[in-house]
UniProtKB/TrEMBL annotation:
Binding-site positions, [4Fe-4S] cluster: 306, 366, 369
Subunit composition and interactions: Heterodimer of LeuC and LeuD.
Lineage of the organism: Archaea, Methanobacteriati, Methanobacteriota, Stenosarchaea group, Methanomicrobia
GO terms classed as biological process: L-leucine biosynthetic process
Domain Aconitase/3-isopropylmalate dehydratase large subunit alpha/beta/alpha: 22-294
Class of enzymatic activity (EC top level): lyase
Role noted for this protein: Catalyzes the isomerization between 2-isopropylmalate and 3-isopropylmalate, via the formation of 2-isopropylmaleate.
Protein name, per record: 3-isopropylmalate dehydratase large subunit
Gene3D superfamilies in the record: Aconitase, domain 3
UniProt keyword annotation of Iron present: yes
Species, as recorded: Methanolapillus ohkumae
UniProt cofactor note: Binds 1 [4Fe-4S] cluster per subunit.
Length: 425
């Protein structure tokens, strides 16, 4: 399709703009999929109708390419949230847009799970963690509500084609160490601006061995190192996942970076000796090995979010808990990322077991991740979370403290009441 070697990011923008482009160029690109949700959607809708004011036809560019997901404030936790839901339901009905408004789950789990993501797609969403879809070889990125208004009206948006920062990861992840530990390690290494406006591309044998849930965790947190996107080359693992969800899907081997493509930098890592990692308050790049934090007292543990709310994550947590009771005074909140993932956990007996030991299992939503309607931390409290951000006040009081970890570290810590190395359980 092209003669000049290209990165995956450059290939996707070349397709979307209808010409061969290189990093650094500005393009007007066609959008393959647009997503918005109950928090950011209302402003996008308002902006859309302002753009369309005075026009007879106030229809979006292509309703089949737009998806709405209710996930941040569900069920509605305030009158304002309820009114936003009404507004978004009416917009979806009037425009003929697919709307997952009945607690289907977190947007970044629901879209790929329902077959709305493909390799080579250019996807935008009014949520910073839209970069999660890069796990499937799509270029997906977050944008503001007013930019989404323009997308709803035109199906196009301007971009500066980003350079690609490649992370080559080799070796085998040790026992009790998972992709969450790896992505925290990478963020801690390069810092919160280490991949600023770059496409972070995760490659190498260690990445290729990962299944889709692990890859989604990696791509999901690319934004925490400043990345515009978090890309992983699609392969047979990707194909197997998508064939179960997209009729007649077949993988196009074109969607990968050429071997001699121009990367801004290639960073090499060997994970063979990596230990579990924890991000300490109040920044995601404040990462330390769990061994340096063992004994830190915890009040609440949250397992869920678009980062680590899949069945495999819950399974890791449950394996760490084993047949042990929760530590005295520990509040364990588990929120599966989607209805599908919830039902997997239910059928595996995990929901009943969690309720028996005193945990709470909520219906699929963002939950405590963004300091929503439940699970907020009070002054001086310490939370341990499998989510993606630990900014001051992110999960409650600005005087609380949030640590980020893997599901297995969360499970081990739930039975001790303090940050615990899962390798010691």
């Amino acid at each position: 399709m092209n003669k000049k070697p290209m990165t995956l990011s450059e290939k996707i923008f070349s397709k979307a703009s209808g010409k061969n482009v290189a990093a650094g160029e500005f393009v007007i690109a066609d959008i393959d999929r647009a997503m918005t949700h109950d928090i950011t959607g209302p402003l996008s809708v308002k902006g859309f109708y302002e753009i369309m004011e005075g026009k007879d036809d106030k229809k979006v560019w292509d309703p089949s390419k737009i998806v709405i997901v209710f996930d941040h404030q569900v069920p509605a936790d305030s009158q304002n949230a309820a009114q936003n839901h009404i507004l978004m339901r009416k917009f979806a009905t009037d425009q003929g847009i697919l709307n997952y408004d009945v607690f289907e789950g977190v947007c970044h789990q629901v879209l790929p799970e329902k077959g709305h993501v493909k390799p080579g797609d250019l996807i935008v969403g009014t949520d910073s963690h839209t970069c999660a879809y890069g796990a499937f070889g799509a270029f997906s990125t977050g944008l503001g509500s007013t930019d989404m208004a323009a997308v709803l009206a035109s199906g196009k948006l301007w971009f500066k084609v980003p350079e690609t920062l490649r992370f080559n990861v080799r070796g085998n992840l040790p026992k009790h160490v998972c992709s969450k530990d790896l992505i925290l390690h990478l963020i801690g290494d390069v810092g919160v601006e280490g991949a600023r406006y770059k496409a972070a591309e995760f490659a190498g044998p260690a990445i290729q061995k990962m299944q889709m849930p692990e890859r989604m965790t990696m791509s999901n947190m690319a934004i925490e190192m400043g990345g515009k996107a978090g890309l992983i080359e699609p392969d047979q693992v990707t194909e197997k996942y998508l064939k179960e969800r997209i009729p007649n899907f077949s993988l196009d081997s074109y969607w990968k970076s050429d071997a001699d493509a121009n990367f801004s930098k290639i960073r090499e890592y060997d994970v063979s000796d990596l230990e579990p990692q924890v991000a300490c308050p109040h920044n995601v790049d404040n990462v330390k090995p769990v061994s340096e934090l063992v004994g830190t007292k915890v009040n609440q543990i949250f397992v869920g979010s678009c980062t680590n709310g899949r069945f495999e994550d819950i399974q890791m947590m449950m394996n760490a808990i084993g047949n042990n009771p929760l530590a005295k005074g520990i509040r364990l909140i588990v929120v599966p990322a989607s209805r599908t993932e919830y039902m997997k956990a239910l059928r595996a007996g995990y929901v009943e077991k969690l309720m028996d030991i005193g945990a709470i299992v909520e219906s699929p939503c963002c939950g405590p991740c963004m300091g929503g309607s439940f699970g907020r931390l009070g002054d001086g409290e310490v939370g341990l979370s499998t989510s993606n951000r630990n900014f001051k006040g992110r999960q409650g009081s600005p005087n609380s403290f949030v640590y980020l970890c893997s599901p297995e570290t969360a499970g081990a810590s739930a039975i001790t009441g303090e940050i615990t190395d899962p390798r010691e359980i």
